[in-house]
Structure of asparagine synthase (glutamine-hydrolyzing):
Amino acid sequence: MCGIAGAFWTSPQHEVSAEVLTRMTDSIAHRGPDDSGIYHRPQQEHGPYGIVPGIGLGHRRLSIIDLAGGHQPLANEDETVWTVFNGEIFNFKSLRARLEGAGHTFRTDSDTEVIVHLFEDEGVDAFRHFNGMFAIAVWDQRHRRIVLGRDRLGQKPLYFRVQDDQLLFGSELKAILQAPGVPREVDPGAIDAYLTYQYVPHPRTIFKGIHKLPPGCYLTFDGQKLEVVSYWNPDFTRESNLSLADAKAELIELFTDSVRLRLQADVPLGAFLSGGIDSSLVVATMKQLTDQPVKTFSIGFPQKDYDETSYARLVAEHLGTEHHEFQVTPDAVEILPKLIHHYDEPMADSSAIPTWYVSQMTREHVTVALSGDGGDELFAGYDRYKAVRLAAMLDKLGPLGRLASRLGMKVLPAGGPQKSILRRGYRFAEAMSLSPARRYLDWISIFNETRRSDLYDDAFVAQLPDADPYTFLYNAWKRVGRRDPLTAASLADLTTYLPCDLNTKVDIAAMANALECRQPFLDYRLAEFAIRLPAKWKWRGGRGKFLLKHAFGDRLPKVIWNRKKMGFGVPLNTWFRGQLKEILHDTLLSETSLSRGYFQPEAVKKLLDEHDQNQFDHSARLWALLVLELWHREWVDGHR
């Protein structure tokens, strides 16, 4: 696991110096504290292939495999292919055997060398052969171009900026911002999307002119033509007709092999264990594949509603793991500046806080940790899918269903605690007049369309692009074609919420603490299998993960399968009426904040007042606004 940065240019006036390249690379030193390297070569007027563009590749290394020989940047024998990459190629041993059979000679035992030799043979088609989590940059001298590629499910981030004939890239935004002349112009459309989703969706970033490479895509640039191509396009409309027995057998085989591949490491390795189904299954499978006790790590909080350590302890005892349990009292005042600095753009998922703490404490014992991310999206584990199923049944009733929804809005309260049953019932009924995809967005939004309209200043609205943030979710939703709404919602989450929120959250929190996090559920073979599964093998008896329980039910205590799902979060509601109240009010109502011209001051004050008086739980919305303002102060105000 590492950090990469670099530049490409075809004219001398856009050259990026070795000093700037070093600065870009050093800005992400936390991602790779063990080693660093750069390859810098100015533009050449008379090279072996004509005029050769200038290239700079930078790398920071967290050593995991081939500790002595895995230095980057790394080239092939004649130095016509150079690469830097962040992540792991888990099937590198089988790829290496194939390449050796084709006549390639290897100088190291690292997965990095597989990339350069496979690229020699396959070019950009090499990305289709990698099973892993990766962000890769390749200098292809023969074709005088830079190539960037990102893994299928967006586990590793990759940012880029193209201006004229120059391309800059980095594992984090902060690397690109080190280059001279990169403007920090905030994109109003990105703010609109952020307040909708709690993250800025790809390919956009918070800054105009800087982009995220979407998951499952590669990019080529030769100084004139920029091309972004999707190399992973599973058919979301196709549904398998596997029997339950066959689906069970295939799931066990795929999941076991995925965990096996992710146990490759030359450093200490363990697993996050929350006590939920997904992380517990990862640990149970690790136990089957290794002779040594599995090291597991859990984090607990004083507030009972946010503490899962009793379940994690139960699983650890059941599986006989070497369990480490950390009890912490989250200090929002202390951790906020760290989060704002490391998450280069606004990210309002407050579960970044416990993710940060568990990563920090796990790193004291191991360098690699496996986690259960992805199980909810692949096997329909979120509670919100219950609403999707109920809404689909009401839709089938036609006018009768719409009448039931209108009656619900009349009798249910619009206010009250955000997660109360009555409040949820009102939100459900309120959204029933919308299309299934628009309705789902209304349920998951931090600020839905109505609330954003009430919040925005007229001058800010005038700056917004015509594009609707809804398009991002809708484009994912419609990929399933005529399949059922549960499948549409869960697979839309797989390609939106998972890469943009969950994977970003985990990558930044883990890498800030020099910890590699591996996610067995996100093996692309397992994802393709789950994409094809019919809803009946995921959802049964009002609950998700039916096939997981059918396949692995005997590996975990029954209470783990039957327990109520608990979010991985922090008590924002309480914080904003206690230790964070003063900071929240002072920040959001400050002249600095209100003068930005984004929001109507009266609307911000109303949110604060309603939350203070316990009329509404606006904690998620207030957190989003607080993060946005503190981000501005860290990344924009001081750099104008």
Remarks:
- The first strand starts at residue 2 and ends at 9.
